Each structure stands twice: as C-alpha cells, then as structure tokens.
Amino acid sequence: MLEPDGSTPRRATISDIAQRAGVSTSAVSYALNDKPGVSPRTREHILAIASELEFAPAAAARMLSQGRTDTVGLILRRDPRFLANESFFMELIAGLEIGLAEQRRGLLLQLAPDRAAESSMYRQWKAAQRVDAVLLVDFERDDPRVELVRRIGLPAVAIGDPSLTGGLTTAWTDDATGIRNAVRHLHGLGHRSVARVAGGPHFAHVHIRDEAFAAECARLELRHRIVHGDFGVTLAERHTHELLDDAESGYTAIVYDSGLTAVTGLKTARARGVHVPLDLSIIGWDDSLLTTVTDPPISVMSYDVVEYGDAAARLLHGLLGGTLPAAHLAGTPTLHERGTTGPVRSA
Amino acid sequence: MLEPDGSTPRRATISDIAQRAGVSTSAVSYALNDKPGVSPRTREHILAIASELEFAPAAAARMLSQGRTDTVGLILRRDPRFLANESFFMELIAGLEIGLAEQRRGLLLQLAPDRAAESSMYRQWKAAQRVDAVLLVDFERDDPRVELVRRIGLPAVAIGDPSLTGGLTTAWTDDATGIRNAVRHLHGLGHRSVARVAGGPHFAHVHIRDEAFAAECARLELRHRIVHGDFGVTLAERHTHELLDDAESGYTAIVYDSGLTAVTGLKTARARGVHVPLDLSIIGWDDSLLTTVTDPPISVMSYDVVEYGDAAARLLHGLLGGTLPAAHLAGTPTLHERGTTGPVRSA
DNA sequence: CGAGCCCACTTAAGCGCTTAAGTTGGCATG
DNA sequence: CATGCCAACTTAAGCGCTTAAGTGGGCTCG
Predict the structure, then answer these.
(1) Type and span of the H or E element at B208
(2) Which has the minimum average pLDDT: A103-107, A296-300, B8-12?
(3) Contacts of A91 in chain B (CB under 8 A)
(4) pTM here?
(5) A227 at the B interface (CB within 8 A)?
(6) SS3 sequence, A94-146?
(7) Which residues of B touch A95 (CB under 8 A)?
(8) Where are the domains of chain A?
(9) Chain B interface disruption, residue of A3, A78, A109, A147, most B CBs within 10 A
(10) Residue A84 pLDDT more than 90?
C-alpha cells in the first residue's frame, strides 16, 4: 500500500469512486447508503469499486453533513489510582462495547478529577458536537447532571436507580429487592441480629440499600444496624471491629457494600479469632476475583454487569432512535452463596 | 438555555460570532486559534463574544478541514468477561487519560473479539480517519500489527518490549531486569531451587521473562524450571501441584506471572499444608488489590502502571508532533516485599 | 512627497460528505 | 402522437471550519 516514494497513498474519497465509475458523487453516496436513486446495476458497480479501493467514508465529513458522530461519551469521575479497584467499571465498559459495536458506535472515554471538570466536559462535548449522547454513571442523590444534560440538550442514558435519574432513560438494577433477599436469606438461616457496612451515604445506591435493608429487617423483627463508610479498607476494618465489639447486639451477620469491604471484613473477623461462617456470616456486593480468591470465598449479591452495560447500550440506541425515555430493569442482584454464609451456630 | 418553545438552541458557530463582532469568519478563526492577522483589540473582542456564546468549534468541521481528530484509539482484544480480571488495563487507561487530557485529546476505546476484528478496526479507523493514532497493547511475538500500522500509515505507539515492536515508538518496562532482580533476591534469601509459573508463551513479555529468568538462574547456579500456562486459575493450580510434587527438585520459591496466578499458587500451597513463606516463597507480578488482601499478602514485582500509561500518552504526543520513533523506558518492575517471601527454612 | 511595505483585515476556495432540487430520456397512457 | 410521469441520474448548495490569496489604508523611508 506504500507508494513508490514511500509515502502513504491518499485515501480514496467518493469522488475517486465517482470518477472511476463514471457517475456523480451523489450517485455514489446514494449507492453506498442504500438509498433510492441508482439502478441496481450501477449500485453494484459502485459498491465493487468502493470495496476495491477499501473505501470508508471520512468520519468527519459524515459528521459534518449529518450532524451525528456515531460516538457516545462516558466520563468516569474517579481517582485514576483507584479506578482499577472497581472491576465494575471495566465490566460495564465491556458490556457497553458489546452493545455499541452492534450499533457501529464508538465509545469516547474520559476521566474527570472532579464534578466541575465532569460538567464542563459534557458542555464541551455538546458544544463541539463530539458525541451523540452520553452515559451517566455513579449517581448521587440530587445529581446535578440530570438537570445539566437536560438543559444543554445532551441525550443521556443513566445507569442508576430510576428514583434518582429524573426521568432520563435509565438502566437499573433492583438493589432494594436484592438486599431484601439477602436479609431474608440470613433470616432463614436463623440470624436475628444483622448489620450492614455501607459505602458513602451520598451515593444513590447506598441510600436505596439502606432503606430496603432497614425496612426488611424491621419487617422480620431483626435487630439491625447500618454504619456508613467510604468503600475503603480503613473504615471497613474499623466498622467491622465496632460491630464485633458490640457484644450486646451480638451481630451474627454483616452485609457489606462491595467486594473489597467484604474481604476486609473477613480478614478483620479472622484476625479477631471470629470464625466465618460459624460465628459470623458475611455477604459482599458485586462479584469479582477479589471475593472468589479468599478462603473461604465470599458469598456475594451480584448480577451480570457486562449484561448491564449491554442493556444500557441498547437503551441508548433506542433513545437516539426516538424512543421515549423510560426506565429499564436490567437485573436484580442475586445471592451467590459461597463460603461465608451459614446457619447461626446454635448457642 | 432552553428556547421558549422548549427546543434546544442552535449552537453558536463562528459565523454567529463574526456577525456579532462585525468581522469576517476568518478573522474569528484567526482570533480563536491565536494566529496572527487580527489586532489585539479585535481579538479580545472576538474572544469575549465567543465565551459569552459558550462557543466551542464543531469538532467535525475542524477535523474535516485540518485532517486531524484529536482522538487516539485503543483496541483491547480480550474476552469482555475476563477483561476486568486484569486491573492492568484499567490502570493503563487511567494513565493514558491523564496524559491525553493534557493534550486535549480523547480516547476512543474498542473491544475486539479476535485478531481479525482488531486488524480490520485499525484499517477502518485509518480509512475513516477516525483517530490520529493508535496505542498498541498486548504484544505477541511477531505481532502482525507492527507491519499493519506501518503499511496503512497509521501512527502508533506500542506498549511493550522494544525487541518486539519493530521500531515503533515504544513505551516499555524492563521486565528482564525485573525478573533478574527477583531471582537475585531469592538467591540472597538462600533459595537454591526456584520455579516460574508463566503465562502463555506467545506473549512477548512472557518470553522475555522466561529468558531472563533462566539466564539469571543459570548464572547463579540455581536449579530452576519454567512451566507455561495461560494466566488462568486452573493451570496455575495444576502447575503449582506439579512443582510441589517434584520433591527431588525441592523448589523453595515460585515466581508467578500475574497476581491471580500467584494468589492461586498461595491457596494451592496452603491446601497442601505447605507453609508460605516458611516452606515456600511466592512472588507475583503486577500489583493489585488481589495480592494485597490475601493472608499473608503476596510479594510482587510491580511498577506504576498509571505512570506507564501517562508516559505512553506523552510519547504519542511527541510522535504526532514529529518526533522520530524511539523506545522509552517507563519503569522497571521492583520487588514489593510483603508476606510471601522469606529465607529458606534451614533444613 | 511618492514608492513600497506591512498590518489588519476580507474573499474565496476547499476539506468530503449528504441531500434537496433540477434534468434527462424512455415508457405508458389517453 | 403529444402528454405526463417516473426512474435514474446530475447539479448545486450546504454542513462549519481553516487558510491561501487578495485588498486597502496608514506608515516608513529615501
């Protein structure tokens, strides 16, 4: 493909095709886009030449004249150093890619250090028409992005609970039902005093799990308690100690809000000589290698995140196709029982 | 920002600015791009109007007339389901983003199911001028992508060992020196019989580590052996058993090629009643949560992957700026000693 | 004091597509 | 056999920028 002089050849344009085929560029355009206006014979001829030249329409030219980019944006507002700790994002991205690939759309990825940077990036993308739509993750309560994308007219698909996405097209997982099932399961095993080590309460999903957890415990008349941390190791450890110190309450099960905190809880309990699961049952959240390599492996509430991403991509396709915004349930976390849950040791 | 009728306002173009400022569009263009041709007074005036209108140049128009997209592409040829297992990629992406953000470039991310799909995506990107350059990861020996990007004239930065990237601009980490140091460290601890549980031998970095490992062991007159797997749990377990079964060789240390395999090795040894690190020292590769949550935490060879990505982004900037291709050392894996390495138990 | 020069602009062309609005020539129709 | 119509095209305009090539007026300088 190199020219005699060693330079890269000029890429083919529709004009080149037109010239070779002896037609106008518009005929070529019609043929390539499968639109009426050319005879089957001519169309085939044009298509043949196009493929011979390995033609692909210049993305920029298409964008400019069509006003669409076939690209969607995703901004992750996370510390780059900790991003990799959450396999959730990588799985979500994987799922998104699967869905987007089918739609022949690309994914423009960006990290933002803070909320201001994130917002200005959305504005920027909108103003520069860099993306056709965006995906919103990591919802918080009263998330300002809902209002923002609406105001600037940037199509968006939210990945989070519908109660917080303000009517945007939403892909969600039913965490409330999930945690209710977790509580019920523990209740069934004989646990009567359970705790929850939660993430930051400003996160929407944390709040939702809080409410459902408390409600279900109350319904089943379980003694219960929730402590809020930040998904980090330090607080998870401290909170686990706190709960285990509380002999009066005698918690026999703890539900953690992530895989990492659950692992931390397991180690902490172990270090105190508390046997898991005989003395204490532990349930984590979200499946990952982390929770499977411990000894014993940790029982977790989880759902298929890759599929979740795929579902979001489909919703996005619908949205851009004109479907009206709606929430779409993409899964309910299910208990994957492994080695850290069991019946209460008979007193 | 909504019009009275509820529709989104038309975004501002340079014509709008030109009109308001009472100048031509070219004057606006010169002003916005900081080029000569407008007086400071006019420039300021134009800039003021632009910011008032929240103007951002249409990316597509820019691309079309400039022939550049300010976007770089990254294709990951990995099974979406397993992608998240390697925190490496997420960290690398994080690093890339840091570097790219400074250059005001975006990252177009794509997953590919196989090599054919990957190759055709590069061609596609090149033909459609979707990206200015690409980043190449996961190098294999005789990697066909080196030839491909050269032939189609797609600027590329390779992330891998220079011996395999065929003269492309390359960011690399010195795995050979890394593993030599690991071997030396073990030797210093008194180990005289060491093994290596490696990943798939078609991977470039695996091969490089193999060679350096063998050479260093030979130099230090250590009994040694390498077994090749696939970075997966099943083979890692089998191989660990195999090595520990080999009483004659009496391996007292095993170096694994990843975090996951090291964790697997630790579990396997434990299950056999082999004490780590008293009976067996274990070294993993690449830092991740996985290796820190085990008990004991695993000693690993690692380097700063985020920085690695950042370095790659910088190289890319240079490449697009006309710097000649060169290899750039971005780090040497260093031993992070934690709980799985120790002196040989005196016999 | 006129020639020439340069600064600060404008005009116009072009990037590679899409698409609305012509323009044919062939055919059926009354 | 003139009329009209439709399929199969072409022409031309436009998307929103960049930039090479003008243009005119104020200035310097001999």
Answers:
(1) helix B204-219
(2) B8-12
(3) 80, 83-84
(4) 0.93
(5) no
(6) HHHHHHHHHCCCEEEEEECCCHHHHHHHHHHHHHHCCCCEEEECCCECCCHHH
(7) 80
(8) 14-57, 71-173+305-332, 175-302
(9) A109
(10) no
Of A338, A176, A298, A186, nearest to A251 (Cα)? A186
Q: Residue A37, CA: closest nucleotide via C1'?
A: D8
Nucleotides of C under 7 A from a protein CB: 7-12, 14-21
pLDDT-based confidence at residue B9 (cuts at 50, 70, 90): low
Report pLDDT digits (tens) over B41-57. Answer: 999 999 999 999 999 99
Helix or strand (DSSP H, E) at A27:
helix A25-32
pLDDT digits (tens, 9 = 90+) for A216-265: 999 999 999 999 999 999 999 999 999 999 999 999 999 999 999 999 99
Q: Which fold, B71-173+305-332?
A: Rossmann fold (3.40.50)
Distance, angstroms, CA B38 to C1' D28?
21
Q: What tokens appear for A213 in the block?
A: 């957890």
Mean pLDDT of chain A: 94
CATH C-level class of A14-57: mainly alpha
Q: Which nucleotide minimizes the distance between its C1' and the CA of B38?
A: C8
Q: Per CATH, which fold does A175-302 belong to?
A: Rossmann fold (3.40.50)
The upper half-sphere exposure of residue B176, i.e. CA atoms within 13 Å in the direction of its Cβ, equals 13
User: Does this chain's domain A14-57 share its CATH topology with A71-173+305-332?
Assistant: no
Task: Tell me: pLDDT of A5 over 80.
Answer: no
Asked if B241 CB < 7 A from strand D, the reply is: no
DSSP 8-state assignment for residue A322: T
pLDDT surpassing 80 at residue A13: yes
